[in-house]
Specification:
Length: 136
């Protein structure tokens, strides 16, 4: 009888603590995000993985892993509601090839969820979903 009572008490405790996994919530968007998605072009599509870092000083760094050093973008970010604008800044790039490539880039607008844990990037040929690394 004592074992049954203990089992029931443990079950109630587990249920009270919650069995479902809830997305983590953060106070601000600053942090590191891991992304997966596709890059679509005329000749087909390619799966891509990326890392996006939003720094507290309003700078960002994004790395598309499949492109190596050519997949690096740095710049400044700003937020209005759930929209984040990423504006590339060629002056922050030391590699001359990357600097020339970045000079033509326009700002990207991405969407962050209310918990500041996921970012959706739907921008032209790029379709990425980022999840905050600390939320995993």
């Amino acid at each position: 009888m004592k074992t049954l009572t203990s089992l029931i008490a443990c079950s109630i405790l587990i249920l009270a603590c919650g069995c479902s996994k809830k997305a983590a919530s953060f106070n601000s968007p600053e942090g590191t995000y891991d992304g997966k998605g596709t890059f679509n072009a005329d000749m087909g599509s390619m799966k891509v993985t990326a890392t996006l870092v939003l720094n507290a000083d309003k700078t960002y760094e994004m790395n598309l892993k499949e492109l190596g050093t050519l997949g690096k973008e740095v710049g400044n970010w700003s937020q209005s509601g759930q929209q984040i604008t990423l504006t590339p800044d060629p002056s922050k790039i030391t590699n001359e090839t990357l600097k020339a490539m970045s000079s033509n880039k326009r700002p990207h607008t991405v969407t962050i969820n209310a918990e500041n844990s996921e970012i959706s990037w739907l921008d032209g040929p790029m379709n990425l979903k980022f999840t905050r690394a600390e939320a995993k």
